[in-house]
Amino acid sequence: MEKYVGVDVGGTNLKFGIFLSDGQLIKKWSIVTDYSDHGIHMWKQICEEINKNIEKKDLRGIGIGIPGPVLENGFVEVCVNLDLHNFNPASVLKEYFPDVEIAVVNDANAAALGEQWKGSGQGYRSIGMVTLGTGVGGAIIIDGKLCCGANGLSGEIGHIRVNSDEKEECTCGGVGCVDQIASATGIVRYAKKLLMENDAESSLRMKEEFTAEDVINAAKAGDNVAEHIINHCMKYLAKALAAAAYIADPEVFIIGGGVSNAGQYLIDIIQESFNTYITLSKKKALIIKASLGNDAGIYGAAKTVIG
Ligand SMILES: [Zn+2]
């Protein structure tokens, strides 16, 4: 039976999924990424895992999602969190699997493709995807086609500048990116700043350390300070989504990543704020929650070779 593999390369884990041509996921697993020695071990890990789990005669294609900009020819200049530079994943894997189709895709783009194929983006032709995790990732699909752009920047919604008052530098080298305020890291950072600046009563003060999830839960429970924090951070996200909407005009924005587990509560806040920024048309893009969770990347990677 023809089988396809989707691989999601992450700084912590390598995730694998084996798919049939109709998109049925028949097995998934993950292992810890060993990216020492310029990735030599990582490629070996990937190939060994595939060989262990799938018979060579059945294997038709391998799609691989990479956490960094992928140029049109498949070349990757840098993966910051893996400390890998200047490589072509397809040509590395071709050495191990000469007769198998190999495709390379940026990981956020893979998540968008996955959600459109088998997740909450089904039925939509144009999609904006945003992942709210440690940072803010993004991708744009217009009329069924992934926008890759000239420099791998297309869909990098996280680095749209939205806050001119920001003083600290973003991981991208810029200042005032939405990544700095709407990511899990950004929510906690803004919460700490606000709690330092005033002495308003808040359940967040009971904890020495708290996460973005704690802030969201406090907001849901009616904590005024936490509510203000979430509204503030999501307002900036909505501002960036509005900027993206005026360029790409997708039918939906899909919100994924750990922060999106907050569910409809968060989606409603983003939608309400987003609507206020879109004034040129009555019809606004729908904000919806991603549905594939951590599996979006393996689905999307596999889709690139299933076609
Ligand atoms: Zn940035």
Notable characteristics:
307 residues, Nucleotidyltransferase, domain 5, five-stranded mixed β-sheet, binds zinc ion
Would you give an account of this structure?
Helix 7 packs across helix 8. This protein is of the alpha/beta class and 307 residues long. It has helices at 40-53, 89-96, 107-118, 179-182, 184-197, 212-220, 224-248, 264-277, 296-306; strands at residues 3-9, 13-20, 25-32, 59-66, 76-79, 84-87, 101-106, 127-132, 136-142, 145-146, 252-256, 286-289. The relative contact order is 0.16. The strands form 3 sheets. It has a 5-stranded mixed β-sheet with strand order 3-2-1-4-7. It has a 5-stranded mixed β-sheet with strand order 10-9-8-11-12, with helices on both faces. A two-stranded antiparallel sheet has the order 5-6. The chain starts with a strand and ends with a helix. It has 2 domains: 3-113 and 295-306, ATPase, nucleotide binding domain (Nucleotidyltransferase, domain 5); 122-291, Nucleotidyltransferase, domain 5, CATH 3.30.420. 36% of the residues lie in helices and 22% in strands. It binds zinc ion. Residues 159, 170, 172, 174, 177, 179 line the site of zinc ion.
Tally of DSSP helical segments: 9
The distinct ligands, each listed once, are: zinc ion
- Beta-strand portion reads 15-25%
Overall 3D form: globular
CATH topology term of the largest domain = Nucleotidyltransferase, domain 5
Helix proportion range: 25-40%
Order of helices and strands: EEEHEEEHEHEEEHHHHEHEH
> Would you identify the regions where 5 or more consecutive residues have pLDDT less than 50?
none
Task: Tell me which oligomeric state these chains represent.
Answer: single chain
Q: List how many beta strands DSSP finds.
A: 12
Q: Can you tell me the CATH architecture of the largest domain?
A: 2-Layer Sandwich
Q: What is the domain total for the residues?
A: 2
Mean of pLDDT? 94
* The CATH homology group name of the largest domain: ATPase, nucleotide binding domain
Radius of gyration: 20 Å
Family: Belongs to the ROK (NagC/XylR) family.
Protein name: Glucokinase
EC number: 2.7.1.2
GO molecular function: glucokinase activity
